[in-house]
Input
Amino acid sequence: MTVVCDFEVLRPEQGVAALLPDGSQVAVFLTADGSLHALDNIDPFSGAAVLSRGIVGDRGGVPVVVSPVYKQAFELATGKCLDEPAVSVAVHPVRVRDGVVELT
Amino acid sequence: MTQTLVVIGNGMVGHRLVEILRDSSWRIVVFGEESRPAYDRVALSSYVDTWSSADLELTPLTGCELRLGEKAVSVDRERRVVVGASGVEITYDALVLATGSVPFVPPVPGRDLPGCHVYRTIDDLDDIRATVEAADRPGRHSGMVLGGGLLGLEAANALRGMGVSPHVVELAPRLMPIQVDDGGAGLLKRLVEKLDLTVHTGTSASSIERDGTRLIAKLANGLELDLDVVVFSAGIRPRTDLDLGLELGPRGGYLVDAACRTADPRVFAIGECAAVEGVAYGLVAPGYAMAEVVADQLHGGAKTFPGADVSTKLKLLGVDVASFGDAHAQTEGALEVVVNNAVAGTYSKLVVSDDAKTLLGGVLVGDASSYLSLRPLVGKEVPAGLLQPGGAVDVEMPADAQVCSCHAVTKQTITDAIQSGVACDVAELKACTKAGTGCGSCVPMLKKLLTDCGVEQSKALCEHFTYSRAELFEIIRATRITTFTALVEKHGTGRGCDICKPAVASILASLNNGHILGEAQVSLQDTNDKFLANLQRNGTYSVVPRIPGGEITPEKLIVIGEVARDFGLYTKITGGQRIDLFGATVDQLPEIWRRLVDAGFESGHAYGKALRTVKSCVGTTWCRYGVQDSVGLAIELELRYRGLRSPHKLKSAVSGCARECAEARGKDFGVIATENGWNLYVGGNGGFTPRHADLLVSDVDTEELIRIIDRFLMFYIRTADRLQRTSAWLEGLDGGLDHLREVVVDDKLGICAELEAAMESHVSDYADEWRGVLEDPEKLARFTSFVNAPGTPDPTISFRAERGQRVPVQLGIPEVVR
Output
C-alpha cells in the first residue's frame, strides 16, 4: 500500500504522479464525475515518465489521458491505447480511505 | 539512342513543355535569351512590390540543359542544327519554337527617346524604375501608358507602384476594348480613375519630344502631357525574328497545324509565337495547352489543339473584370441582358441566343464572383431564373465544363478524383488533377465541388465542438464565458480533449482572462503551457528567457551562464536570437526562474502558441548600410506583443535595410526599413512549407506600422483555425492579400478601432507569467515530480556527457509490444 496524497489535493481532470517503494511510478487521475484511476506513469511510446502530465478528456465518451509527448490516448479505466490497440499500460488499484488516496 | 529536343525560348510556355517532358527519354536543351531563370510574366506588375525577381521565378527546371543568356541566332533545318550566340551548335531530332512575342510599338515620332520603354520583361521594369528614379521632379512623378487594354492597365498599375501617376491613352473609344463592352468599360474607367489614373480614350499620341529632363507628349485630341516616363504597351506581336524559312500566319506567328507542327515535321511552335491554323493567341492558357499537345506528339501521341477558351477573369487595379464567350454579342440575333448598378459599382451583361434559351457569353465588371459558374454554361441552356432581376447564378455545371482553364481540367475529371477517393481536399485535388495550380482562380470552385460530392469540408474543431475555432472565439467573446466546463456544457458535448482544451485555453488567454495557470484554465493547458517550459523527449524541460530583439548586456549573459552552470543545463543558441537551456526537471523550474526573474529576465514564451521573438539586425546604430534603427523597433515590437496568445506561434523580425539580414520575410510579420520608413510583410514562414511574406504596406512611419500590425495580429487571432500559422491562414483567406489589406488597412469592415482596442488591452494587461507563478504558492506547488515525495527527482531521468555538456541518456523504448 502506498499513500499518494490527501484526496482534496486532487483536481478534476488533472493528473499527479506517485513514486512507489520499488522506484516505479504511477499516474493518478480524478475525472469530472469523481472517479479515480491509476495507470503506469511511463508513456510506452517515448519511454518518458510523463502520463500524469497529459490532458484528461474523452474520446467518444470514453475517459482518456493523452500522452504529452506523441499524443496517443490511453483509456483511463483499462490502460488501453486507443490509437495503437496492441499497446497498453498497466492499471493499478486505487482507493480513497479516510480522505487519503492510496494505491493498494 | 537518346533523341535530342531543342526548345528555343525559356518563357512560361517553353518552361511548361520542359516540365512535362523532363522525366521522358528525350534529352532536352533549352536556349533562353534572358539570363535569368523562367519567371511568371503574367504577374510581372507585382515585381514592383518587392523588386525581387526571385519572387516571380517558376519552379527551377531539372533534367535538361538550360543555356541561359544564350540567344539562338540561327537554325539550319537541313543539318538539323541550332546555333547559339556563343557559337555553340546543337543538333536536334525535334525543335520547338517558343520565342513568345514582342511588344508592339506604334510608330509615334520620338518613341526611341530615352525615357520611353516597353513593358514585357523584368529588365524592362528595371529600366522604367531607373528612369523614374532619375527624374528630377518635386512631388509625384507623371507617366503615360500607351494602350488601355489588359497589358496597358497592368503597366499603369506597375507605374503606380513606383509612385508615378499614370495617364492611360487608348485609341479605341473604351478601356479593354477586346474583353469589355462600352457599359462595362465606362464603369471600369470610373473605378480606375479613383486610383489616380487619368484615362484618355479615343485618341493617340501624335508625338513625343524631349524638353530638358521632361518628356512632352502631344495627343491627337490636342492635349499636351508633361511626363517623366512613357511606357508602350499597346499589344504584342508574335516573335518570329528567328528566320527558319517557314511560312507565317496571316497576322504573324509561325504557321502550324492543329498538332502545333510546322511544314517541317521536326519543327513545332507553341505559345505566343505560334499561329495555330493561322490564329495566334496572346494568353498563357492556350500556350500551356499547346505545350501539352507537343509533349503528346513527341511521345507518339495524336493529341491536337482543342481551340482556346479566351475567357478572362482578372483583378486589375483592384477591380474585378471578367469576359467570356461571345462577350460582344456578335452572334446573329443575340440578345443582351444588362444590369448596370452605378451605385454599387457593378456591371453585368449576359449574352443569350435570339430565343433566350442558350447562354452565349457575358461581361462582368466590379464583381466577377459569378464568372466561375457562368463561364462553363456558355453554349448550354440558360438556367431558369438567371435572366430575372437579381437572378441566381448558382447553377448546376455540366460535367464537361472546364473548371480550370489554365490546365484544361473539366468538372468530370475533378468529380471522378473526388468520388474515387483519390482526393479528399483542395490540396489533394491540386496534386492529382493539377486544377487550381495555375492562376488559382478556380480554387473556390474546387471547394464547392468537394462539398457537392458530399465530402464534408468540416470546420468542426473536434468531436466535442461542431464550431470552428473562429466561431468559438466569437462565442466566447460574445458570451464572456470564462471556463471550459461552462462552454462545453452549453455549446459542445462530452468532456473535451487534447485538441479543444488547449484551443479554448488559447482563446481565453487572447481575451485576457488572467494568468494561464489560473484554477479554471490549468487543466486545459498542454504540458508546455502547464509548466511554462518546453517538454523534451526524456520528460525534462527547456527554459528560454526573453531577450528582446536579441540585445543583451554582458551582465545578463553572465547570469544565464551561471544559472546553466549551477543547474547543469545544456546550453544552445536558438535561431530566434536567444538562449535555450535544456534538461531542467519540473522541480528545478521554479528555482531556475527565481534566479532569472531576480536578474530582470521574464518568460520568453518559447513554450506557448504566442509571440516568440522579434529578431533584428544591428541597424543604423552600428551598420554602415542601415537606414533605420532596427534593434530599437524590434525591442519595441517584442515588448508590445510579448505574451500575446494566438492560434499558433508568432515570429517576427526587423531588418534595417533591404539587405534583409534579419530574414524578416520568413516571418509571420516582418519589417524591412526603407529610406522613407518601414515596409511591412505578412504571412511568411520557414518550416515545413517555406513561404516568403507578402508586402502589406510600404513606407509607413512607426506609429502607422504598429497600428497596422495591431490590427493584423488581432484579425488573425480572431479568424484563424487552430494551429494555423499566418501563412496558411493568408493562403486560405477568401480574397487573399487584397481582402486582408481592405480589412486591416482600409478598414472596410469597420472593425479596426475594435481590433486596436483589443490590442491595447493586451498591452496594458500584460504581466510576466513566471513572476506570477513564483508569487503564488498554489501555482508553485504543481512543480513537483511526485505528489507523495516532493523534492525527489524523477529516477528515470539520467544524463551523459557530450562535447562538454549534459545530454539525456536515451530512454528504453522497446517496452512497446505490438
Q: What stands out?
A: The two ends of chain B are 52 Å apart (CA to CA). Confidence is low (pLDDT under 50) at residues 814-818 of chain B. Chain B has 23 helices and 39 strands. Chain B has five domains: 4-100+239-299, 104-237, 399-457, 469-525, 609-781.
